[in-house]
Amino acid sequence: MAVVEGLTLLSEALAAGLRIEAVYVHDGVALDVPAGVPVRTVRPGAFEGIASTVSPQPVVAVVAVPRRQLADLGSPTLVVVAAGVADPGNLGTIIRSAEAAGADAVVATAGSVDVWSPKVVRASAGAVFHLPVIDGVALDDLVGLGLPLLGAVAEGGVDHDLVPLTDPVAIVVGNEARGLPPGLALDGLVTVRHQGRAESLNVAMAATVLLFEAARQRRRGGESPPRTDRSPTRVARR
Question: 202-217 burial by CB neighbour count: b if 16+ within 10 A, else e?
Answer without folding.
Answer: ebbbbbbbbbebbbeb
